[in-house]
Amino acid sequence: MTRRDAGLVASIGLGGLVGNFLGLIIGAGIFAVPRDIAAAMGPWGPLSYVAGAITMGAIMLCFAEAAARVPTSGGIYGIATTAFGPYWGWLSGILLWAGNTLSSAAGAVAAVAAASLFVPALGAGLAQSLAIVALYVALVLMNIRSVATASRLISAATLLKLIPIVLFLAIGAAYVSPVNLQAALPAGGSPDIGRAAILGLFMFTGIEVGLGVAGEVRDPARTIPRAIAIALSAAALLYIGIQVVAQGLIGNALADAPAPLAAALGSVSPALGAMMAIGAMVSIIGYLAGDMMSSPRTLFAAARDGYLPALFGRVDTRYHAPQLAIIVHAAVAGALALSGSFQALVIASTLITLIVYVIGCAAALRLRARDVALAGPVARVWGLWPAAIMAFAASAWLAAQSTRAEAVAIAALIGVATLLHVLRRKAVP
Asked: What pTM does this model have?
């Protein structure tokens, strides 16, 4: 253990790590993604989650060894910096921020869609836009004035999000119609395997954050891979169950439902559908509050490191929060939410995050080759090279599914990040 880790105890066991991973995986996406999976794959939708879990498993095996070798240096930022240098750490960090921002925007769209079940006017147009703006204004005010309030909201949403999911499966399973599970794709279309695979992977993003505690895990070389396998398998089974029940309740109508789980359970009882919509809103807003608390700190840190104007690094003396960073993050996320659909935002978020995953997997190979171990000897994760090859191949195939506009936008983002790094190097020799 390094001096920086002095005082920390390796006390996290298999059960605690699995719980941590599941808490990070199961988020707001499950309340909206089943619609787009159904539109892309129809009754074959569950296969998207299987593909996503396998791909993320390969990626996470690489991250597991990398995190064990660089356990306390800022997650992917520290891993990439140690393996390849400051530029790759900076690029990983800014891409992760961009992916989180797009994911936040998608969450805002999904939350307003759930609210439209109670106020139909929120489903489109000016009312929808005003609702998104109001949501982000509320989140900003909460975070710049009371981090404690935001933290309590996040904690409450984390506990409450599983209740509607459990009720959905328990009640909905009794009303599944086998005919709906055999329906053809909507309008007789063909499966969009590429888009469905990206959506499936999105449902498992975020698990890498759980490796931030790698330095406090007992027997990490054995515990972390097992925890990854258990958490991904459990999440995949949960997602498959939700997709099957939703499809079995309303068939192809699932592909057009603004709030898919609420619409599906609403076919059993309008009251149950309303309850599901409320659960979705609480869960999604809790996720948005968590993002609003954490993601702006990336801009704050970037300013402190000289990549962004110093204004982003200022902390309000009264509320002790990086107010400008919070406001700018909310403004960017809100603008994206106003300009894109849920699926488009999720796809863009996943494609950007894929680059971060590729950097992390490559870093794991380089760290092993150099035998880097900042906290002492590290037991090698079994199957690192096969996992890395699988991760690279899957990432390349998924990236190939992007549209020209998506590819150009991502290239532009990388270009801006690179320019900021060059300018910083000139300013700080």
From this structure: 0.86
